[in-house]
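User: Good morning. I'm curious how 7PM would be positioned relative to this chain. Could you predict the structure with it bound?
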Amino acid sequence: MGIVNITPDSFSDGGQCASPISGIEHALRLLDEGADILDIGGESSRPGAQPVSVEEELQRVLPVVEALSGRNVPMSVDTCKTRVMREAIAAGAAMINDIDALQGEGAIDAVAASNVAVCLMHKQGTSQTMQLAPSYDDVVAETMAFLQARMTAVQAAGIGRERLVVDPGFGFGKRLEHNIALLRQLADFTGLGVPVLAGLSRKSMLGQITGLEVNERLIPSVAAAVIAAMKGAKIIRVHDVKATRDALQIVNAINL
Ligand code: 7PM
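Assistant: Good morning! Here's the predicted structure, ligand included:
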């Protein structure tokens, strides 16, 4: 899954991808690099990032979804906003990637009224506060229990299990020790019975381990992607599609 951030304040693309036009160009480049899914987002989920209005987010995301909707590529839209979910689905999105796991008002119904997939992600706290004091007794058990509860809730509302993806939410209200425990035990999450998505690309945990800045984290990101794939993750959310694909072909060939 290739990341298309359409956010002027996105740390990962340094504002290079701040308009729908460059968003489309970036998406086309990731497809060229071999992305199987695009994750299109118009709101930075960075801790402390400026919130974006519904109108602004729609103006960022919809032109990209519309421009790519003729192509044969599944599009995921990264949003917590119910109206953005509805309009993105109408424009051709195949998946909603909601870091709030459909806990927002009307979000479950917006997805239930369609046939798209949904990624349910765990986070502790809000995007504004989550990195202040992450705390767990057992991060793996608590994260899995949350995801299990969300799976139950959305299935009760009519979203079938075959439409669900789960994600432990690396970096979302987690300290380094928590992120390491989640990656080490990622295989446990496959026991939830739906595909597991892992997003580790360029994240600060990789910087904490290596001392490298965000623009220097390609090799640590690929290493983390390989580990996640070997632990059973089926979708790997990355900025660097070609390098990740090259590495994952080896994992797949050896059938690890
Ligand atoms: C600052 C902090 C900027 C974190 C950007 C991020 C995930 C996601 C993001 C993930 C799913 C990033 C993140 N991360 N959606 N959206 N899983 N499902 O590094 O791990 O891209 S935003």
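The radius of gyration is 17 Å. The chain has a mean pLDDT of 93.
Let me know if you'd like a different ligand tried.
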